[in-house]
Design goal:
The structure is a single chain. The chain has 143 residues and is an all-beta fold. The termini are close together. Strands 1, 4, 7, 8, 9 and 11 form a six-stranded antiparallel β-sheet that branches. Strands 2, 3, 5, 6 and 10 form a five-stranded antiparallel β-sheet that branches. A hairpin with a 4-residue loop joins strand 7 and strand 8.
């Protein structure tokens, strides 16, 4: 069975710079273990930028929205996956877009007792969003 874990980070309406975190630290509750099947990033503002998602098996030191992505040295060992979503690979529609990576087939396991995975999303571009809920990140995990 594949379960869907979705987060809508609160994004800034101010312009982002390259390598800025989009929405701050994200928590995906209840993923004790499983196989990461695919990931999507829905962009309701249809920004033509690359996104990078970094997943952690334990809570990383927070980086706030619209700050430079610079993880703490102590958090490096907790990285379990990194994925680039290229602007050229997105499915663009009239006023929104989706980036999707399929068939990842990566075993994941939280090191936390409550079974949470954590993530940061950052951009290598300079997007400006129209709404604070313009980004939705979804993980599909098979159990």
């Amino acid at each position: 069975m594949i379960d869907k874990y979705q987060v809508t980070p609160t994004v800034s309406l101010a312009a982002y710079s390259a390598n800025d975190v989009i929405g701050g630290r994200m928590q995906f509750p209840g993923i004790r273990h499983g196989t990461l099947d695919h990931i999507s990033i829905v962009d309701l503002a249809n920004q033509t930028v690359d996104y990078v998602l970094v997943l952690f098996d334990a809570i990383p030191t927070d980086i706030v929205d619209n700050a430079t992505f610079d993880i703490a040295d102590a958090d490096i060992d907790n990285i379990i996956y990194r994925q680039v979503f290229n602007a050229g690979d997105r499915w663009a529609f009239t006023d929104n877009a989706v980036h999707m990576i399929n068939k990842i087939n990566l075993k994941v396991r939280s090191t936390e007792q409550d079974g949470d995975l954590w993530a940061f999303l950052y951009t290598t571009g300079t997007p400006t969003f129209a709404s604070t809920s313009d980004i939705v990140v979804t993980l599909w995990v098979e159990h």
